[in-house]
Amino acid sequence: MSSSSLTAPIDVELRPDRPALVHVDSPGDAPSWAVAHREVLRALVTEHGALLVRGLDLRRTDEIGAVFARLAGDLMTEREAFAPRQEHGPGLYSSTTWPANQPMCMHHELSYALEAPGLMLFACPTAPAQGGATAVADAEQVLQALPAELTQRFARTGWMLTRSYNGEIGASLEESFGTDDRSAVERYCLAHAIDFTWRADGSLYTEQRRAAVVHHPVTGRRCWFNQVAFLNEWTLAPEVREYLVDVYGADGLPFNTRYGDGTPIGEDVVQLLNATYDEHTRREPWQSGDLMLVDNVRTAHSREAFTGERQVLVAMAEPQRLAAGGTSAKESR
C-alpha cells in the first residue's frame, strides 16, 4: 500500500495479525524526518488505528522526546496513574511499572479520566529478549464482537472504577494526583467528577463513573473504550487476587471495576471481555529503536509478559473529552 495522495508517500505493510508497519531506510536526523512525515504518519494512524515505524533507531531519551514533540505537539502530564512511572522529561515517561512475568491486558490509556489522550506514542530503545510486545486491538471490532445484551448494558450504565490508595500497592497519592496535600487532592477530585472518601486510617477511597462506549472524535464511529477488564479483580492472577483480598479486604483492593450503577461484574463477563480482546489482538515484537503510534480511542493496547531487559518510553497527547455512545438497541452494536 502507498499513501500517494499525501505529500510524503510511505509504503505500509499490512497483515491481519500485526499492526500496520512502515520500514524507514537511513532517515538521518529522526526529529527532522518526523516533521517531514508528520501528516502522512498521522493519516495512517487514523486509517489503521496503530502504526509501527521501524528503522528510525531511536535510542536516546532526548531524541525520542524530540520525535514525540514533532509528531504530537504538546505532550500531556499524566494524572490518575494506577501504577508508578519514571519521568524522563515533560510528558515523557517510562512504561508503567508492572511485573515482567504478568501481562498487562488490553486497555485504553486513562479511559477513566475526564480527559483521555487521543494519541499514544511509544518508543523502544531496548527490546526484551522474549515477549513484551505492545499488542493492539481494534475497539470498533471488539464492540461488534461482544454480545449485544452486554454492550447495551454498559452503554446504559457506563462503568465505575474504584480505587483504594493504601500507600503500598499501586500509585501513591503524589504519583497519581501530583501532590499528597489532602486539600489539593480533594479539589482535583471535585473538578474531575471523582467521588472520594477519607477512611479512618487516613487512606483515600475513590469512585468514578465513565462511559464504556464512546464516539470516536474524528470518525464518529462507536468504540468499546474503557478499562473494565484490565482493572477488574478477576483479571488478576488468582494468587495475587487472593493475597490482596486477604490483606486489604474485598472493598480495599487498589483498583476494581463495576457496572456504572455499582453492580459487581462477574468473573464470566471479565473472562469474556479478555477472550474477545485475544481474538482481535495484533502483535509485532519490539525491535530496539522502534516507534509506535496508537489511536487511543480506536485502539486498545496491552503489554505482554517478557524476559530480559525491556525499555519503552511513552507519551500521551491530544486530550479528548469523549461523548458516550447511544443507548438504543439499534446503536449499541
TrEMBL record:
One of its GO terms (biological process) is antibiotic biosynthetic process. InterPro entries: AlphaKG_dependent_hydroxylases (IPR050411), TauD-like_sf (IPR042098), TauD/TfdA-like (IPR003819). The lineage of its organism: Bacteria, Bacillati, Actinomycetota, Actinomycetes, Kitasatosporales. SUPFAM superfamilies: Clavaminate synthase-like. Its cofactor is Fe(2+). The keyword Ribonucleoprotein does not apply. Keywords: Antibiotic biosynthesis, Iron, Oxidoreductase. It holds the Pfam family TauD. Residues 32-315 form the TauD/TfdA-like domain. The keyword Oxidoreductase applies. This is TauD/TfdA-like domain-containing protein. GO terms for molecular function: oxidoreductase activity.
